[in-house]
């Protein structure tokens, strides 16, 4: 049994919080070192494994926000608190909070892309004095796709928050339009120093990063987190490799200087 | 130390070896080839020295011995995972110089990249190599271009000439088996020239991604993945869970070989897929073999065995592609 990294451990579901019809946050028993942006391989025997990023870390738990979108996650969504999932990890590099301290930080997240960066937002929301200014822009398909509504309430006064949905809706009076439009409007105090984190679907990341570069943000101050198919999480299965980089080992969080070289 | 033996003498030794080792070697399967009336040469467990195919290149590489096509990682019940029992009998593999080099590439990924793979190491540490002589360079081989034509990494070397076997023993433990053999100077002679040369461009970088040379593969490649399957250095796998019909709460998790050329290799839950274009997949594979593996580990992944060219039903040639790349880099096309 020594060093068999493929053997998962059992983890109890402490509670489940639904955000939308298809996005639930599962609070899982876990003690050990883990960083925001890292991921676990979560599995149910018979159905398979899926890499899921961590969005909140407690002393004896981790929160995993899981969208019902595939073979494994469809089944996970039928589980109840008190039942168990299998997990192995955490894997990947995760975000390093020290990079962003004492500077201005902007986080732009699209859809479930908010999950891997939520740990960073929580951290600075709780340590708001350790950062100069924090702006958050989140885009969702529609108002019913908005995740972490309760967290927004906690973040909002401290963090300058913009939530937008793709299209006009009846009875919705919030912001409408793509993230890029709100990036254009965003006021950045120190454009040469500000750090930016962009996470979301590939197309959203591409155009959002471009918009920040157009505004004058330095490439080396932009960070992204990539999502890829992964079967092992430990540099063997080859599915996530791009050029000489293994997303599971060197990523999923990359500085844009590196990320822009990662062409699939 | 070298010996010569006749077939009968060697058969006795082989019987002794089989007590300690499971022996794998290329074997001829009559009429099992891809096309009608063709044969197949592939690896199998060998019980008789006469079953070893010395004269032809095996269509498949020996990687399946240490990286099985499907490998059970563990069995599960509803709340428990159990590792499969492990056979600790030692393994001898008969293989050629390029194949020994190919195993080194698998070692790099499975033993060093991101930590040790438990299942690979267990099999790998039981393995000893028996080098086979290449009497001639086979069709599509370009080992000399890839510097894999020679090796010192073997325990035994065996060459067969009619009914006489010549054996070089590099590892002492095997001397005890050969005490009856006639002492003789034996050492391998290596291929020094192939008909095919692959000129791996030195100044390659990712700007080549934009080159139109990949376009032809978009229409030629049919994404069958045979090139990956026969390659001695391709080690990608996909995780697969199965359950038993009679008791759906028990089953196993296993890994199976995967191919970067086949649909679905990058498909994530929700259906998003990278490299939909088969030209991009060819580019991904070729660049891994002659550019980015080298960037990461300091030597090229491709060993020049040419099996991908042998296997391709669309007659796509890897070495041709490499030579074309070289011309693009040099500005000749």
Automatic annotation (TrEMBL), chain A:
The keyword Cell membrane does not apply. Its cofactor is [2Fe-2S] cluster. One of its GO terms (biological process) is pyrimidine nucleotide biosynthetic process. Binds 1 [2Fe-2S] cluster per subunit. It comes from the Bacteria. PROSITE patterns: FAD_FR. Keywords: 2Fe-2S, Iron, Iron-sulfur, Metal-binding. Residues 6-97 form the FAD-binding FR-type domain. One of its GO terms (molecular function) is metal ion binding. Gene3D superfamilies: Nucleotide-binding domain of ferredoxin-NADP reductase (FNR) module, Translation factors. InterPro entries: Cyt_c3_hydrogenase_gsu, Dihydroorotate_DH_Fe-S-bd, FAD-bd_FR_type, FNR_nucleotide-bd, OxRdtase_FAD/NAD-bd, PyrK_electron_transfer, Riboflavin_synthase-like_b-brl, Sulphite_reductase_B. Pfam families: DHODB_Fe-S_bind (PF10418), NAD_binding_1 (PF00175). [2Fe-2S] cluster binds at residues 232, 237, 240, 248. The keyword Cytoplasm does not apply. NCBIfam families: sulfite_red_B. This is Anaerobic sulfite reductase subunit B. The lineage of its organism: Bacteria, Bacillati, Bacillota, Clostridia, Peptostreptococcales.
From TrEMBL, chain B:
One of its GO terms (molecular function) is metal ion binding. Coiled coil: none annotated. Keywords: Iron, Iron-sulfur, Metal-binding. This is Anaerobic sulfite reductase subunit A. Residues 210-242, 293-321 form the 4Fe-4S ferredoxin-type domain. The keyword Transmembrane does not apply. Pfam families: Fer4_22 (PF17179). The keyword Cell membrane does not apply. PANTHER family: ANAEROBIC SULFITE REDUCTASE SUBUNIT A. PROSITE patterns: 4FE4S_FER_1 (PS00198), 4FE4S_FER_2 (PS51379).
């Amino acid at each position: 049994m020594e060093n068999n990294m493929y053997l998962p451990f059992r983890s109890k579901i402490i509670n489940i919080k639904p955000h939308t019809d298809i996005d639930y946050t599962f609070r899982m028993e876990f003690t050990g070192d883990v960083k925001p942006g890292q991921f676990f391989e979560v599995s149910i025997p018979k159905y398979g494994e899926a890499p899921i990023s961590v969005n909140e870390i407690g002393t004896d738990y981790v929160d995993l926000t899981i969208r019902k979108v595939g073979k494994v996650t469809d089944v996970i969504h039928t589980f109840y608190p008190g039942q168990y999932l299998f997990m192995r990890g955490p894997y990947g590099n995760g975000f390093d909070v020290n990079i962003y301290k004492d500077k201005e930080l902007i986080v732009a997240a699209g859809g479930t892309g908010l999950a891997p960066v939520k740990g960073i937002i929580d951290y600075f929301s709780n340590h708001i004095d350790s950062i100069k200014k924090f702006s958050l822009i989140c885009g969702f398909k529609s108002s019913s796709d908005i995740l972490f509504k309760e967290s927004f309430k906690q973040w909002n006064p401290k963090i300058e928050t913009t939530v937008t949905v793709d299209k006009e809706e009846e009875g919705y009076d919030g912001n409408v339009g793509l993230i890029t439009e709100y990036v254009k409007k965003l006021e950045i105090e120190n454009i040469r120093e500000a750090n930016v984190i962009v996470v979301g679907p590939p197309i959203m990341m591409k155009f959002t990063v471009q918009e920040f570069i157009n505004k004058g943000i330095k490439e080396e101050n932009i960070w992204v987190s990539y999502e890829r198919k992964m079967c092992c999480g430990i540099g063997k299965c080859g599915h996530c490799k791009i050029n000489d980089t293994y997303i599971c080992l060197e990523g999923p969080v990359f500085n844009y200087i590196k990320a822009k070289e990662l062409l699939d | 130390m070298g010996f010569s033996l006749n077939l009968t003498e060697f058969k006795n030794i082989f019987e002794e070896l089989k007590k300690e080792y499971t022996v794998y070697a290329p074997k001829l399967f009559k009429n099992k080839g891809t096309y009608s009336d063709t044969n197949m040469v592939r690896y199998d467990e060998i019980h008789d020295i006469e079953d070893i195919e010395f004269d032809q290149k095996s269509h498949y590489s020996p990687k399946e011995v240490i990286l099985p096509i499907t490998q059970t990682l563990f069995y599960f019940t509803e709340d428990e995972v159990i590792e499969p029992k492990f056979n600790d009998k030692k393994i001898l593999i008969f293989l050629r110089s390029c194949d020994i080099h190919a195993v080194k590439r698998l070692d790099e990924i499975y033993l060093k990249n991101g930590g040790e793979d438990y299942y690979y190491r267990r099999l790998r540490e039981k393995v000893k190599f028996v080098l086979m002589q290449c009497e001639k360079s086979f069709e599509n081989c370009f080992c000399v271009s890839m510097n894999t034509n020679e090796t010192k990494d073997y325990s035994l070397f065996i060459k067969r000439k009619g009914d006489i076997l010549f054996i070089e023993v590099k590892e002492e433990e095997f001397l005890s088996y050969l005490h009856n053999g006639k002492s003789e100077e034996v050492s391998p002679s290596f291929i020094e020239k192939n008909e095919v040369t692959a000129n791996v461009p030195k100044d390659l970088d990712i700007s080549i991604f934009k080159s139109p040379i990949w376009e032809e593969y978009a229409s030629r490649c049919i994404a069958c993945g045979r090139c990956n399957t026969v390659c001695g250095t391709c080690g990608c796998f996909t995780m697969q869970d199965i359950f038993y019909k009679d008791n759906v709460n028990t089953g196993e998790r296993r890994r199976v070989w995967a191919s970067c050329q086949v649909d679905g290799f990058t498909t994530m839950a929700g259906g998003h897929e990278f490299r939909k274009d088969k030209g991009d997949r060819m580019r991904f594979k070729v660049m891994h073999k002659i550019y980015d593996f080298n960037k990461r580990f300091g030597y090229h992944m491709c060993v020049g065995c040419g099996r991908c060219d042998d296997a391709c039903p669309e007659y796509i040639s890897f070495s041709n592609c490499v030579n074309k790349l070289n011309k693009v880099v040099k500005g000749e096309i």
